[in-house]
Amino acid sequence: MKPASVLFLFFLYSFAGWIWESCYVSLHTRRWTNRGFLRGPFLPIYGFGALLITALFTPFATHPLLLFLAGMASATVLEYGTGVSLERMFHQRYWDYSWFPFQLHGYISLYSSLWWGFSSLLLVRFLHPLATSWVWTLPAGTVILFTSLLLVLESIDLLHSLHRTLPAHLSTADTPADPFLSTCFRPLPF
């Protein structure tokens, strides 16, 4: 698969993850909640997770139990690592399973791990084949155009989100802010 198509699928899965998680949390809180670190409608952990699962475990599509277990383990490791990394970088917790039984440090839980296993089955056996079939029907120029546009927009969103989060953390640190980071995260004009 061409790099633009893979990146297009990354954005598609990141958007689908944002829809799923924002709706799920909004239903539980009874108010609209835009989930994630970014302001835009993307949760990159879902894009990375989906591409990781499909790249590694598509050969196991005919072995549902193995696919479930491997997908569950991989996505759980990704979720734990992402949760720890985000909290260490930004001193903010973006999700917390502390109130779930069978959880580890609030970053992962048995409940979420079982969900990742089921999601891996659904993704590899049904959703990814549909998504790739759809992407293959699109003209290459369209895929490149939309992927390039999304890459620019999400890069701006990422820089804006980092600007919004990092300077506050750096200014309260015991050590002076890195001059390189200070110049990278100047106020954006929006």
- Summarize the amount of helix as a percent range: over 70%
The number of distinct β-strands equals 2
How is the biggest beta sheet arranged? 2 strands, antiparallel
Global outline = globular
Spatially, the strands of the biggest sheet line up as 1-2
| Individual helix count | 6
What is the residue-mean pLDDT, rounded to a whole number?
86
Structural class comes to mainly alpha
What is the radius of gyration computed over CA atoms, rounded to a whole number of angstroms? 18 Å
Order of helices and strands: HHHEEHHH
Transmembrane segments: 6-25, 37-60, 66-86, 107-127, 133-153
InterPro entries: CmpB_TMEM229
Keywords: Membrane, Transmembrane, Transmembrane helix
Pfam family, one: ABC_trans_CmpB
Provide an overview of this structure.
This is ABC transporter permease. Keywords: Membrane, Transmembrane, Transmembrane helix. The protein is an all-alpha fold and 190 residues long. It has helices spanning 3-29, 44-57, 64-90, 110-137, 140-171, 179-184; strands at residues 103-104, 108-109. β1 (103-104) and β2 form a beta hairpin. The longest helix has 32 residues, at 140-171. The protein is globular, with a radius of gyration of 18 Å. Mean pLDDT is 86; it is low at 171-190.
Question: Topology, pairings included?
Answer:
Blueprint (H helix, E strand, L loop, with lengths): L2 H27 L14 H14 L6 H27 L12 E2 L3 E2 H28 L2 H32 L7 H6 L6
Antiparallel strand pairs: 1-2
